[in-house]
Amino acid sequence: MKPTSTDLGLVARVAHLHKSYGTTNTRVNALTDVSVGIRRGEFTAIMGPSGSGKSTLMHIMAGLDTASSGSVWLGDTDISGLDDSNLTVLRRRRVGFIFQSFNLVPTLDISGNILLPFELDGRAPTAEEQAWIDRLIAVLGLTDRLRHRPHELSGGQQQRVAIARALATRPDLVFADEPTGNLDSRTSREVLTLLQTASREYGQSIAMVTHDPVAASYADRIVLLNDGRVVDDRSRSTPEEISSIMLGMEALS
Amino acid sequence: MTLMLRALREHAPSILVAALSSAFGVSLISITGVLTEVIADADLNSETLTFILSFIAVVFIVIALYVGALVTANTFATIIAGRVRTIALLRLIGSSAAMQRRAVAREGLTVGVIGALLGGIVGVLFPVVVVGVGVAVGMIPDGSYTYATATMLLPVAAVALTTTAASWVGSRRVLSVSPMDALGAAGEQSIGEQTARRTRNRVALLLFLGGNVILGVAVAIGQTSPLAVLIGLAGGILSFSGVVMAASVVMPRALRGIGRVFGSSPTARLARENAVRYPERSARTTIGLVIGVTLITTFAVTAASYQSIIETAQKEMPGVYEGVGPVLTVTVAVFSVLMGFSALIAAVGMVNNLSLNVLQRTRELGLLRALGFTARQIRRMILIESAQLSGAAVAVGLVLGTFYGWVGAQSLIGGIPGSPGIVLPTMPLALIGVIVVAAATLTVVASIAPSRRATRITPVAALARA
């Protein structure tokens, strides 16, 4: 019997993943034979230059997009065969998202945004979950902001709300797509530290897509993609090291 | 070519609205003309009747024009909101805001002229068919009637002008687009649409209250003189103008109220907020329908109350009021159809607005999908939004129409011999049924296209950068 993801200590994994766009004549291979696992409790950065396939990889792992071939597991669930409504429920319960452009629902206040995943599930948070949410809100410094609307908050504050929303359900895995792309450097550092803390102290598994070496240096592990293939997989590195690898990749291609 | 197609698709609803208004105006003038000829031939009291007919035609055309202009202004405002980035880009490379706005007004002129001409052609042909049928079944005496007169150019020109003016009003937003909007991820804007309208709201309140006082006076005087109905008419116009003017205050409240009916599930809550997130826009979207429903209800309630007062009076003094009923029923039917036309124009506006609204919410809908909204929940949300819009419009229209209609009947015949004095309004249940069914149909129809579009949005849309 094959080992499951859990046996391997993985929270998500893809095997022999291919993804291509377009018809035969104009085919573009976004991902070519990618096999990689995201380890439970770790903060993983998925890096690569524009067009390297890092976003596509994240979309497929999160059940937002489908693979051309290959297998995708979230925990021990093979999600490559799930239909739209099952994928929707899976995302609702087991995945969290943090976006570059924050993406809060403008018509809901901060509290409503944080509780949205529970509401979509048609239930109120349990006492234990509520205690966790309250703690998140306090740690993220949002206590005074709960009744505000997203547009009344600064970018950094909005991103904290998004982090609270992503962590609230204690999902198996949080996907962060260039979470600091729209923030200044000081706010970026704050947000990255928060993600790091979430992973170290609460054991939250996080996969962050980025092309910024500084952001990637906060992660425990760095998976590098180029031209749709995994080209490097390394543990925690300094921004300088990451930069030089990235520059090396440019030279090769 | 694709640009042309896109522009056509964006403007198709406005062209349709202009064409409907113009067709309505032209055919109403034409049919009025034919009727006048029939009356003149029959040698009835022709002068007075002709005058009344022309007056009624003008009133209905003006109402249709007004509703059409509201709808078009709203459509243009929505289109502009979706074009912010393009406009900002043009501003960035050196176009002035005034130039941009003039360009929009030119589009409005084109839309108006095309729509007015198309509608004009239909408007000329339609009465030919109607009269043909009328002659065939013997309702109208055979004869050579004039179907095309110079007067008919008036509604055509008026539609072209009001459409242009409406596009100008609707394009006000262009002035506030900054070239900077082209650089940033122009996300949520619109909040702050509601500015300095205090004075306007005060005037509106004054009109509404003043109008209602006059209506009260009309009811009191109606106990002795039927001429009170003229006072009532003045009061009604003032009071209703107040409501229309304050639509951006009144309608969002009505929308919220109606929204509560759908419960507090996240779907319903989001729908409720969506329906009021642009108060100006939802007010403009719904006020056309409110006008239509109010007018229809006013006439119907007047007629029904009139009839029940007459019936009571008849029991008191038998024989005096024979044969009033049928005439009244026909009159109400004809008026309802004429006013239903304005409601139809308003309905086109609502369908269009909901569509554009969804189109502009792509990213947000993608986000909801990513966070775990099922396609079904999205469809439900849009259906509820649609139901809120039509429900609020119908509710406000029914309440106002019942009140005005009651005043109408009371002031007209409250003092006739044998009258029961001041009584509760009589509700024409059949007509209310028709309005409710029409509103339900509109709700579903308006939500079909946007739902289909919205459920096609993939969650990846939310992650798309910038």
TrEMBL record, chain A:
A GO MF term: ATP binding
Keywords of this entry: ATP-binding, Nucleotide-binding, Transport
A Pfam family reported for this protein in Swiss-Prot or TrEMBL: ABC_tran
Residue ranges of domain ABC transporter in the record: 12-252
Gene3D superfamilies, sorted: P-loop containing nucleotide triphosphate hydrolases
Keyword ATP-binding applies: yes
PROSITE patterns found in the cross-reference section: ABC_TRANSPORTER_1, ABC_TRANSPORTER_2
Record InterPro entries: AAA+_ATPase, ABC_transporter-like_ATP-bd, ABC_transporter-like_CS, ABC_transpr_LolD-like, MacB-like_ATP-bd, P-loop_NTPase
Source domain of life: Bacteria
Keyword ATP-binding: yes
Record PANTHER family: ABC TRANSPORTER RELATED (PTHR24220:SF685), IMPORT ATP-BINDING PROTEIN (PTHR24220)
Identification of the protein by name: ABC transporter ATP-binding protein
Species this protein is from: Cryobacterium algoricola
